[in-house]
Design brief:
Layout lengths: L2 H18 L6 E5 L11 E2 L1 H12 L12 H12 L2 H6 L5 E7 L14 E3 L5 H19 L2 E7 L5 E6 L11 H12 L1 H4 L7 H24 L8 E6 L1 H9 L4 H20 L2 E7 L10 H10 L24 H7 L1 H4 L2 E5 L7 E5 L2 E4 L5 E4 L1 E2 L5 E2 L2 H30 L4 H4 L10
Parallel strand pairs: 2-4, 3-7, 3-8
Antiparallel strand pairs: 1-4, 1-8, 5-6, 6-7, 9-10, 11-12, 13-14
């Protein structure tokens, strides 16, 4: 990831922050397959939300999940709603993860409740820093590469993490963005924007980038092969318009509707999505930039030391030389077990996984078995064995039934049934 991107995040965050200060309202998070109860949407801290997002992106081994964390219940619900068994038989699809600044909860997905809310919502600049941390962790896990396919000069970015694909950047000009916007939403709405104004140009370019992203995700969804790419985006154009023109301005109202339209399109073509809606910043806050910078740095807490099993193992490469090394390398067995000595071997510590019990909407308990070196994978061996042998036995019974019917059909009928002689009744 380039230094230019970090510099743009910093400058963009400063620009928006100086205009409005710090916001402490709640952010709303929408996730595919997970919807909160209308009257009981859970609210968690920014630090707990970091753990949930890390699980969603597959980098939870970098983050320590405490036993009494507010994130644990939500993660268990995610595990219950997305069956590992179904993903075993069906191809994985791309994961879309977007943060949208300047959009409130009630303005999106009327029929869908947020999965959860984030209390004391950090700024968009803090979320941008968090996304960068996730991207570094993704790259270190699979030696993949995160490519910035779109980048503007106030912190907006769209990236794709993929270990195999090569992606070109989305480039446009102010005139091209305005022309494309007019084709999408009409001439009347396009006439409200002035490409000589920086905030207008940024928003139009983000709309153009989202349109290209919709086309990209649509083509991906039609492919039958597995797709493990992850799209991570940070959109700040709407927030910039809010700061420039105000929440009651016509241009902001139109831009908000445009953003909701494109997010709904992404929702339709993306099988797995996460939308983080950051509400418009409250301009009444008077905190200084120095205070805000400190808040941004501490907003999501600290993850564990960024290593991926780089601690020393013993000579056979299967055990860790100490309990501490095992605990650090596996993030305390991903919170699903504990490190203990293996047999009678000296300097050999491995994870002993334990089961988790989650409840579904009907109040029924479900046991989740964990496996793997760091207890980070669900053990579906029992379900697989049941499905496998059920299929084999069922297929065998089907063949046996067909053969039995075929053999019966080849036998000659008895003489009584095949006789054509007419029976004549005698009279006396």
């Amino acid at each position: 990831m380039s230094l230019l991107r970090y510099f743009i995040f910093f400058i963009g965050g400063c620009t928006l922050a100086l205009a409005s200060g710090v916001s402490y309202t709640e952010a709303s998070v929408y996730m595919s397959g997970l919807s909160g109860n209308e009257n009981e949407v859970p609210s968690i801290s920014p630090s707990d939300s970091r753990l949930v997002f890390a699980h969603k992106l597959g980098v939870s081994r970098f983050h320590k999940l405490k036993s009494h964390s507010g994130a644990r219940k939500i993660i268990n619900e995610m595990l219950h709603s997305h069956s590992e068994l179904s993903s075993f038989f069906y191809a994985e699809k791309s994961n879309t993860f977007l943060t949208i600044a300047g959009l409130a909860e009630s303005e999106l997905f009327d029929t869908l409740n947020p999965a959860f809310r984030i209390s004391s919502c950090p700024s968009s600049n803090a979320f941008a820093s968090l996304m960068c941390r996730y991207e570094r962790q993704l790259d270190s896990l699979d030696n993949g590469k995160t490519t910035d396919i779109y980048l503007n000069d106030i912190g907006g970015v769209i990236s794709i993490h993929d270990s195999t694909g090569v992606y070109s950047q989305i480039t446009t000009t102010p005139y091209k963005s305005l022309e494309d916007y007019e084709q999408l939403f009409g001439e009347d709405k396009a006439s409200m924007f002035d490409i000589s104004v920086k905030q207008d140009r940024v928003f139009l370019s983000e709309i153009y980038a989202l349109k290209i992203l919709v086309e990209f995700l649509s083509s991906k969804s039609q492919q039958e092969r597995s797709d493990t790419s992850i799209v991570i985006g940070q959109l700040v154009g709407l927030e910039a318009l809010y700061e420039k023109y105000g929440k009651d301005s016509k241009i902001y109202q139109v831009a908000r509707e445009n953003m909701m339209t494109l997010l709904s399109m992404i929702k339709q073509v993306s099988s797995t999505y996460t939308f983080i809606l950051l509400p418009p910043i409250d301009s009444s806050e008077t905190s200084t930039r120095y205070h805000k910078r400190q808040v941004d740095m501490e907003a999501f807490g600290e993850e564990i030391e960024e290593v991926v099993a780089s601690y020393e193992k013993n000579y056979n490469g299967r055990c860790y030389i100490s309990e501490e090394a095992c605990s650090k390398a596996t993030n305390d067995c991903s919170g699903h077990g504990r490190c203990s000595k293996y047999g009678q071997l000296d300097s050999c510590y491995v994870c002993q996984c334990s089961n988790s019990v989650v409840s579904n909407a009907a109040g029924q308990n479900k046991t989740i078995r964990w496996a793997g070196e760091s207890c980070s994978k669900q053990d579906i061996s029992v379900e697989f064995q049941f499905f496998f042998w059920f299929t084999i036995i069922g297929f065998g019974l089907l063949i046996f039934s067909i053969m039995l019917l075929f053999s019966i059909g080849q036998e000659e009928l008895a003489n009584v049934l095949t006789s054509t002689a007419t029976v004549i009744k005698k009279t006396t």
